[in-house]
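In the design runs reported in the main text, the only information available to the sequence generator was the tokenized backbone. The following block is the verbatim input for one such run; it is reproduced so that readers can re-run the procedure and compare outputs position by position.
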């Protein structure tokens, strides 16, 4: 693989924070009745569609020549459904204005509520488990070319605007292993018509363990 393609792949691996191996979430712990009522209210209020206000920036694990982390850009569309189900669509871009999209990723699954998070009154620790769907669509030829070099086994030829499911399969670029579900240890904080998740760790670490669960708030989604 050329240095250029290797650099592009590294960039794409960390675009969404989906580069860690799948994990199994611990069971929910018993909650006090008052806490259960608070969480039930948050869930009811969250139902519906949410989206990015504008293209967002994240730190990646790829570095510039001076050692600083390279940025990557994305927009999110999130739907919270009854029974703790969710659908998430992420479009990654090569530029801060979203004019050069690289890939679309769709995941679906369940949210596991794990108790209060100390960042703000009402914030909750939540694990997102992609146990229903995980789909990848190249939106740029460069991304399709990389996938055809590193993720050809078990897949059709990758092509622009041609989605393929990676759910339950091995998918080397995102560190997915066959038979496992991707999961992130995240947080949720609802404030009016703004829905906050956790801010990405500034050193590029994913939310792949409880120890790496975010400690600050990300730019919010707005109710659609």
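Verbatim output:
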């Amino acid at each position: 693989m050329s240095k250029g393609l290797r650099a592009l792949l590294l960039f794409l691996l960390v675009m969404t924070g989906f580069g860690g191996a799948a994990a199994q979430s611990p069971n929910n712990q018993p909650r006090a009745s008052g806490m259960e009522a608070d969480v039930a209210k948050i869930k009811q209020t969250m139902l519906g569609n949410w989206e990015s206000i504008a293209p967002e920036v994240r730190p990646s694990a790829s570095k510039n020549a001076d050692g600083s982390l390279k940025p990557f850009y994305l927009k999110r569309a999130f739907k919270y459904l009854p029974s703790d189900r969710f659908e998430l669509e992420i479009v990654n871009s090569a530029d801060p204005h979203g004019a050069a999209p690289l890939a679309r990723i769709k995941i679906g699954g369940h949210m596991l509520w794990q108790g209060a998070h100390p960042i703000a009154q009402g914030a909750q620790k939540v694990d997102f488990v992609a146990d229903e769907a995980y789909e990848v669509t190249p939106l740029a030829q460069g991304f399709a070319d990389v996938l055809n070099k590193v993720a050809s086994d078990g897949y059709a030829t990758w092509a622009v605007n041609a989605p393929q499911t990676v759910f339950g399969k091995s998918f080397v670029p995102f560190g997915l292993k066959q038979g496992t579900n991707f999961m992130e240890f995240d947080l949720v904080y609802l404030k009016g018509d703004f829905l906050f998740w956790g801010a990405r760790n500034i050193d590029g670490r994913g939310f792949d363990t409880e120890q790496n669960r975010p400690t600050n708030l990300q730019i919010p989604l707005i109710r659609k």
